[in-house]
Amino acid sequence: MKLSVVICTRDRPDTVGQAIESVAECDYPSRYDIHVMDQSTNTHTRDIVHDLAQRFASKCDIVYHFLDKAGLSRAYNAGMRVSTGDVVAGTDDDVVVPKDWLTEIDRAFVADPQLGLLYGQVLIPDSLKEAERSGELIVPHLLIEKRERLVQGRGFKIFGMGANMAIRRSSFELVGGFDEALGGGGPLRSSQDFDFAFRMYRKNQAVLLAPEVKVDHYGSRTQAQWTGTMKAYGIGDGAFYSKHIRCGDPLALYYFSKVVLYNNARRVKKLLKERRWPEDDYLPSLFVGVRDAAKFGIDRKYRLFRERRAGQMTVTAANAVTGQQRTKETGS
Fold this sequence. Notes:
Layout: E1 3-9, H1 13-24, E2 33-38, H2 44-55, E3 61-66, H3 72-82, E4 87-92, E5 95-96, H4 101-111, E6 115-123, H5 126-134, E7 148-150, E8 164-168, H6 169-175, H7 192-202, E9 206-217, E10 219-220, H8 223-246, H9 250-274, H10 282-293, E11 297-299, E12 304-306, E13 322-323
Parallel strand pairs: 1-2, 1-4, 2-3, 6-9
Antiparallel strand pairs: 4-8, 5-9, 6-8, 7-9, 10-13, 11-12
Helix pairs in contact: 1-2, 8-9, 8-10
C-alpha cells in the first residue's frame, strides 16, 4: 500500500528532528513520503528538515512545506492535499515512533477495506515516567486496552489522539477533512480528533482503536501549563458537541449530557470530601465552547464550521508544551 506521513509542527526545533528521524527509520519495505507542515516563526525547523531529507534520500522522500497561517486542522488538511499515499499516517513533532509503526498501520488497512481511521496508543516514554508519577510533569497519553472496531450501528466512543493516527484518503475526502475552527491554533482550540472520528462514524467508515500501533510521546506540560490545556480542551469539546447537537444528532446530545453530569458529580464529590468548592478549568470552559461555537455557521453536509461575521477563523495561541528529547540511554 502507498503510505504517506504528515507531521505538523510549530516552533519545536528541539524535538521535531527526532520525530522525523524515527519515521524515516521505519522498516516499511516500500518507499514512502514524509511531509512536514511547518508553521514556525523562524527557519530552524526548515534547516533541520532539509538536512534530514538529504540524509534519508535513498529511503524515503522528506518534503518541507511552510504554512503562513497557523492551525493544526489547517495543517492536517494541507498535508493531505500535498501527500500522495492511499493511507496517510499522522504523528506529532514531539513523538518518536518504533520501527514497525508503518508496517502495523499498513496491515490494519489492508485487512479492512471499510477502515477509514485508525488511532493507536500514545505512551509515556521511560525517561518521563518518574516525572509524570511525581506530578512534576504531565504527559498527555492514550492507552488502548483492547482492539475495538467502531462502526455505525455497533457502538461508538469519544476517543482518539492525533499523535498516532492514520487515515484512508478516500474516507478523508468523504467526510470533508478536518474542521479548521477546531484544534490547536484554531478559534475553538481543540477536539479536532474527536470531531473527525465522529464524522467518520456518521459516514459509515470504520474507526479502529489499535493497541498494537504504538508511539512514545515526549511532549509534556508543567502543572501551570496544564491549566491552560484543560481550558482549551473544554472549549474544543463544548464546540464539538454543540455543533453536532445543532445538526440534530441525538448521540452528540447524549455524550454532552454524560460529560456534564460526570464532571458535576466529580465536583460535588470533591466538595463533600474537602469542604470547599473545587477549582475546575474544564467544565466552565465547556460552556464557553458552546457559546463561542454559536458564532459560527455550519455546513450541514460535512458538519464543518463555517465563518460568518460573528465567527472568524482567527489564529489563537497554541497550547504551551515542554518538549523533551530522547537520550541515547533510553533510546526510543
